[in-house]
């Protein structure tokens, strides 16, 4: 087993465990989060903390659901971390926004890296229609996101990411007839 696949296996295991814990916690479902505080609570519970990379994933997941006219659990997600990215943390945010799950086989963190110059790439596909959206976050966002972690509290990170202009490029591929 390579170090890369071992890290992916551990991430999948951690995410699956977090989803089970959330499913039995008795609180609101992740898909029903409405407030910043609820998103922060879910992100912290799933990820173990709420840095700026988590709301990046939340924003992508919510955007994909809207663009694809999909409901939570109706999408498949593949996520690639960029070559210089410290982690695949945005995948946790996508998970809580879409409820795509490694355990259900609807969320996959790829062992391969995203192309040079990217912080992350995610492809989110509507299971029924086949339409998809490819999200690309430029590597130039990494220092800005790290700075948010150093200077802002959780609520400030959430707000800053949700308002950030040009955070990602989204390419829609319509369903095939």
Structure description:
- The chain has 177 residues and is α+β, with helices and mostly antiparallel strands.
- It is 45% helix and 18% strand.
- The protein contains 6 helices and 5 strands; from the N terminus they run αααβαβββααβ.
- A 5-stranded mixed sheet has the order 2-1-3-4-5.
- Helix 1 crosses helix 2 (36-47) and helix 3 (53-68) packs across helix 6.
- The protein is globular.
- 41% of the residues are buried.
Describe the structure in brief.
Helix content is 45%, strand content 18%. It is an alpha+beta fold and 177 residues long. The N terminus is likely disordered.
Helix content: 40-55%
> How many strand units?
5
Q: Main sheet: which strands, in order across?
A: 2-1-3-4-5
Strand content: 15-25%
Structure classification: alpha+beta
Termini separation comes to 41 Å
**Number of discrete helical segments:** 6
Radius of gyration: 15 Å
Q: Please summarize the sheet with the most strands.
A: 5 strands, mixed
Average pLDDT taken over every residue: 86
Which oligomeric state applies? Answer: single chain
Q: Could you list the spans in which at least 5 consecutive residues all have pLDDT below 50?
A: 1-30
Order of helices and strands: HHHEHEEEHHE
- The global form is globular
Task: Outline the secondary-structure elements.
Layout: H1 3-23, H2 36-47, H3 53-68, E1 75-81, H4 90-98, E2 107-109, E3 118-126, E4 132-138, H5 141-151, H6 154-163, E5 169-173
Fill in the keyword field for this structure.
single chain; 177 residues; alpha+beta; five-stranded mixed sheet; 6 helices; 5 strands; 18% strand; globular; disordered N terminus
């Amino acid at each position: 087993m390579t170090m890369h696949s071992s890290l992916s296996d551990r991430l999948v295991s951690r995410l699956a465990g977090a989803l089970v814990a959330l499913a039995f916690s008795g609180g609101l479902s992740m898909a029903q989060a409405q407030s910043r505080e609820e998103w922060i609570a879910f992100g912290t519970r799933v990820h173990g903390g709420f840095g700026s990379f988590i709301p990046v994933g939340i924003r992508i997941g919510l955007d994909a659901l809207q663009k694809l006219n999909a409901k939570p659990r109706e999408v498949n997600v593949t996520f690639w971390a960029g070559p210089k990215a410290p982690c695949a943390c945005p995948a946790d945010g996508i998970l809580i926004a879409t409820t795509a799950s490694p355990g259900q086989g609807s969320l996959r963190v790829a062992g391969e890296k995203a192309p040079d110059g990217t912080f992350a790439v995610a492809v989110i596909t509507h299971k029924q229609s086949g339409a998809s959206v490819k999200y690309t976050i430029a590597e130039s966002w990494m220092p800005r996101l790290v700075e948010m972690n150093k200077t802002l509290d959780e609520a400030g990170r959430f707000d800053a990411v949700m308002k950030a202009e040009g955070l990602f490029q989204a390419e829609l591929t319509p369903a095939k007839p």
